[in-house]
Design a protein that fits this description.
This protein has about 325 residues and is an all-alpha fold. The protein has eleven helices and three strands, in the order βααβαααβαααααα. The N and C termini lie far apart (about 75 Å).
Length: about 325
C-alpha cells in the first residue's frame, strides 16, 4: 500500500466517554484517583513479592507479573483519557493510535495467557500437591512468562498487520477514549468487512479459547476441592474465588467486544473500561484482602519504611509550626 493512501489522515479525534462539559472535571478527578490506585496497588504487590522471601513461590511470581501487566495495560489508555478531560479538542496522532493498538493487544493477549498459567499453577497445587515444587519449578515459571509475551506479540502483530497499511482519507472520529481496533478499521476508505472478520476470528479464538480452557481448569479444581474438607482446601477455595472473579471481569468484556461483532459501540466503550481500568485496580484488592500472606508482607513493608516514631515526630513538628 502506498504511503499516500493514508497520508490524508494524520490524526484521529477521540469522542471520549462523555461530551458533557459539566461532567469533564468530575470524570477527571474520578479517573485520576482510579489510575493512582492502579499504580500504587499493583506496585505495592510487586514490591511485597520481591522483598518478602516467603512470597518467592510460583503463585506470587505469577501474581507479580499480573500486576506488572495490569500497570502497563492501564497506562496505555488512562493517562491520555485523563488529560483529554481537560481539553476541548481530543486528538491522537496516527502513529500514536497504531502504537496504542499494538501494545493494547500485546498486554491484553499476554494477560489472557498469564491467567491460564495462574489457573495451571492452582491446578497443580491442589490436584497434585506432592509434585507441586517439581512441576512448578523456577524454570517452568520463567517459561510460562516467556510464553505469555510470545503469544501476546504474535497476537498483536497479526492484528496490526491488517491495520497498519489501511488507507484513511475520510472521517477520523473514534467513538471511544482510545484507539480501539474495530472502531479504527471502520474508518478506512475501503471495504473492511473481510478485515473486521479476520480481527473477530483472531481475537475471538484467543479470548474464547483461553476462557474455555480456564472454565475447564477451574471446574476440575472445584470438583477436587469439593471432595476434600481440610483447612487447606478452605484456603484454596478462597483463592479460587478470587481467581474466578478476575477471569470473569477480564474475559467478559473482551469476548463481548472482540468476539461478538454485533455489539453496539456505546456499550463497547463502557465495557472497555473494565479491562483497561477497573480490572487492573480490582486485582490488587481481590488478591490482597483475601490473602493473609500478602497482607502480612505489606505490614512488614509498612513497618520497615514507615516508622511510628517518624510519624509522631512529623506531627509534633507540624503542631509546633502552627503554634509558632
Amino acid at each position: 500500500m502506498h504511503e499516500t493512501n493514508r497520508s490524508s489522515v494524520t490524526e484521529f479525534v477521540l469522542l471520549g466517554l462523555s461530551s458533557s462539559k459539566e461532567l469533564q472535571p468530575f470524570l477527571f478527578v474520578i479517573f485520576l484517583l482510579l489510575y493512582t490506585g492502579i499504580l500504587l496497588g499493583n506496585f505495592l504487590i510487586i514490591l511485597s513479592v520481591t522483598s518478602d522471601a516467603r512470597l518467592h513461590t510460583p503463585m506470587y511470581f505469577l501474581l507479580a507479573n499480573l500486576s506488572f501487566t495490569d500497570m502497563c495495560l492501564a497506562s496505555l489508555t488512562t493517562p491520555k483519557m485523563i488529560g483529554d478531560f481537560l481539553l476541548e479538542h481530543k486528538t491522537i496522532s496516527f502513529n500514536y493510535c497504531l502504537a496504542q493498538i499494538f501494545f493494547l493487544h500485546l498486554f491484553g493477549g499476554g494477560e489472557m495467557v498469564l491467567l491460564i498459567s495462574m489457573a495451571y499453577d492452582r491446578y497443580v497445587a491442589i490436584c497434585k500437591p506432592l509434585h507441586y515444587m517439581t512441576i512448578m519449578s523456577r524454570r517452568m515459571c520463567i517459561m510460562l512468562v516467556i510464553i505469555q509475551w510470545c503469544i501476546g506479540l504474535i497476537h498483536t502483530l497479526s492484528q496490526l498487520a491488517f491495520t497498519v497499511n489501511l488507507p484513511f482519507c475520510g472521517p477520523n472520529q473514534v467513538d471511544s477514549f482510545f484507539c480501539d481496533l474495530p472502531l479504527v478499521t471502520k474508518l478506512a476508505c475501503i471495504d473492511t468487512y473481510v478485515i473486521s472478520l479476520i480481527v473477530v476470528i483472531n481475537s475471538g479464538f484467543l479470548s474464547m479459547g483461553s476462557f474455555v480452557l480456564l472454565v475447564i481448569s477451574y471446574t476440575v479444581i472445584l470438583i477436587t476441592v469439593r471432595k476434600r474438607s481440610s483447612t487447606s482446601m478452605v484456603k484454596a477455595r478462597s483463592t479460587l474465588t478470587a481467581h474466578i472473579m478476575v477471569v470473569t471481569l477480564f474475559f467478559g468484556p473482551c469476548i463481548f467486544i472482540y468476539a461478538w461483532p454485533f455489539s453496539s459501540y456505546s456499550v463497547d466503550k463502557v465495557l472497555a473500561m473494565f479491562y483497561t481500568i477497573f480490572t487492573p485496580i480490582l486485582n490488587p484488592v481481590i488478591y490482597t484482602l483475601r490473602n493473609k500472606e500478602m497482607k502480612s508482607a505489606m505490614s512488614k513493608l509498612k513497618s520497615r519504611y514507615v516508622k511510628p516514631g517518624q510519624i509522631s515526630a512529623a506531627f509534633r513538628n507540624i503542631l509546633s509550626l502552627e503554634i509558632n
